[in-house]
Amino acid sequence: MTHEDEKRIPSAFAIVGGSGSGKTTLIERLIPELAKRGFKVGAVKHDAHEFEIDHPGKDSYRHKAAGAAASLIVSATKLALVADVEGLPPVESIIYSYLAHCDIVLVEGYHLSGLPKVWVRRRGVRDDHIRPDKLLAIVADEPCHSGVPCFSHGATAGIAKLIVERMAPVHRPPQQVFRLPAPRPS
Fold first, then answer.
1. Distance (Å, whole) CA 167 – CA 24
2. In whole angstroms, what separates CA 12 from the centre of its chain?
3. pLDDT tens digits along 105-163
4. 14, 111 in Cβ contact below 8 A?
5. What CATH number is given to the structural domain containing 24?
6. Number of domains making up the chain
7. pLDDT tens column, 61-92
């Protein structure tokens, strides 16, 4: 059995909604609530825009700017990877590759994924682009009549309880495992 065979996929839940609906705030509240219940929690943030987590002038930025396909910055307490990718990898593949040591992963975004979803809605926030398949719950500031549990924005403990109740058993790796692209020849 190889190391890859031993890895598993933790239970993962997508927190979806329009920009400004409260997704990040909900995740910030759920992480300590789930950790308090004894779970190791990971998080993935989908960003639809180009982002830069490194800063010009810093050594790790300079490595990447010099042409490195991937650059790691590591300390005694943190590790960050900046790598070129060829298109948006499937979230299940990202979770398997980097967060298999977690029990639960909360994913902000990825509303088109096959993950169970908690749809965060807020009056006045446009969210008609969300495709709520595999809907686990709705978090809203207005009553909802959807056939799934509906919570207020402050009902963190209830949402965490539902997530724990709906955790999937550990399952096999995804069909498409995320791999960093091969370095380009010089």
1. 21
2. 8
3. 999 988 888 899 999 999 999 988 887 789 999 999 988 888 899 999 999 999 999 99
4. yes
5. 3.40.50.300
6. 1
7. 888 888 888 888 888 998 888 888 888 888 88
